[in-house]
Specification:
Length: 238
């Protein structure tokens, strides 16, 4: 049975890991709180630690609550869309043939058949986003394989509701959120490096932090910027 700590209106999910110190995290988008503790830590000790960090927890949750959220996209002409951190206006063109997307200066042209609905237009755009990521990610992985001296067995793209990325340490795979195509390229690189560092150290331990400090010194700034950017328009749920 999963362990949990209840402090007032805050519930903290507790996991046991082979680590030296307690790690407390507040996760976007809804401020979910988790606490990773060494396997030998008593629950009352973990609770006492969480109480000392209650002010920090509430501050992080408030920051997430006030964070900007994108308006749901309708995929119509003159609508704003973001790519690599830059704003573009969408131009929807109706024509027969296979749907396509083209980037032209400050404009994204979406070509679809007459009568196509929002779901169809969203899928065409999402497929284009994945294509751009598939062009961008492999060179980044290759670059950081040399620096970190690790080997990525494979990478996967998907919509992720609560994470920018994840790593399967045992299989050597990393998984990346397709929403990253909307963020500045350097933030995509930070997430790639973060997940690849987990191939060396699977936990968010002191060793993991040391790896990021050494190879990606600006990681704290990158993480803060990424978490401050607007969240997607989806209704997030667990």
């Amino acid at each position: 049975m999963a362990e949990a700590i209840k402090i007032g209106d805050i519930t903290i999910a507790v996991t046991r890991k082979d680590i030296k110190n307690v790690h407390l995290s507040v996760h976007p988008p809804d401020g979910r709180v988790t606490l990773a503790a060494p396997t030998s830590t008593r629950l009352d000790v973990a609770r006492a630690y969480a109480i000392t960090r209650l002010g920090w927890i509430r501050a992080q949750q408030e920051k997430l609550t006030s964070q900007a959220r994108e308006e749901p996209r309708k995929y119509v002409t003159r609508e704003s869309h973001y790519l690599w951190g830059h704003r573009y206006l969408l131009n929807v063109v109706h024509r027969d043939g296979k749907p396509s997307v083209e980037l032209e200066r400050k404009q994204i042209t979406l070509s679809v058949r007459q009568g196509s609905d929002i779901a169809k237009r969203a899928k065409v755009m999402h497929d284009w986003h994945k294509k751009l990521l598939h062009e961008t990610i492999p060179p980044l992985i290759e670059k950081w394989e040399r620096k970190l001296r690790v080997k990525v067995q494979g990478y996967f793209l998907q919509r992720m509701k609560t994470k920018w990325g994840s790593c399967n340490h045992h299989r050597g795979n990393i998984r990346l959120n397709t929403e990253l195509v909307k963020k500045p390229r350097e933030l995509l690189e930070y997430v790639v490096v973060h997940e690849m560092a987990h191939l060396i150290e699977p936990n968010h331990s002191e060793r993991f932090v040391t790896i990021l400090d050494k190879y990606f010194p600006s990681w704290l700034e990158a993480r803060a910027e990424l978490n401050a950017l607007p969240l997607g328009a989806e209704k997030w749920s667990e």
